[in-house]
Amino acid sequence: MGLVTLMMITSAALWVYVNELAGTKPAEFIQDEPLQVASDQTPGHTIHDESLKDNPDLHRAAERGDAEAQYRIGMAIVQRSWERSEPFAMLDAVTWIRKAADQNYIPAQRVLGALYEKGRGLIQDYGLAHDWYLRAAEQGDAPAMARLGMMFARGHGVKQDFAQAYMWLNLASGRGALGAESERNKIHGMLSPAELEAAQERSRSLDAKLPRLAAQSQILPIGF
Asked: Which of 7, 13, 92, 180 could share a disulfide with 172, CB 3.0–4.6 Å?
């Protein structure tokens, strides 16, 4: 019993000595630290719409309902989305672009059509792409006419119809849309002489009815 008691005393003394050297108390349960809540200041958090900081006047105009300002903010977000590889930013971009498109702002209607056609920031939907292109084309937008022509040529969102494709591409080419002439000429040989004559007549008739814009916006971002 004396030996056992001695060993117990020695062990206890050694335990106290080690803990004194370490400057610690006997082990206790450590409470979990509260989880960090992400905020706008948390590193790595991205505010997709930076217009309030970058251009407060533009942001205020957009908030008041100015369609051009809404479109410009949306396109700025698209650009940042691609530069920073932030696909989720496209959701913010679509919100602003749609606001402008709903006010019949032609460039926004064309871009919204392209977003639906490509399925960027939206579920791909050829039918809705066609509808937005048509809205812009009916206001005289040549690039939208060219996009419509290509949808008819490919049968995207509509029944494939080379005569309709030729008509829209012919209109777009006549109004200066880049690339429309070469695409129209590819379809030329797919039509019979009678179909070609009828398509050209429809082009002339529609050209006389549709508005002519003082300036055509030709440029779409790369990838559209």
From this structure: 180
Q: How far apart are CA 146 and CA 166, in angstroms?
A: 10
Q: Where in the chain is the domain with CATH 1.25.40.10?
A: 47-139
Fold of domain 47-139 = 1.25.40
Inter-axis angle of helices 162-174 and 180-188, to 10 degrees? 150
pTM confidence score: 0.75
pLDDT tens for 7-28 read: 555 555 544 444 544 444 443 4
Among 89-103, 161-175, 203-217, where is mean pLDDT lowest? Answer: 203-217
Cβ atoms of 117 and 124 within 8 Å: the answer is: yes
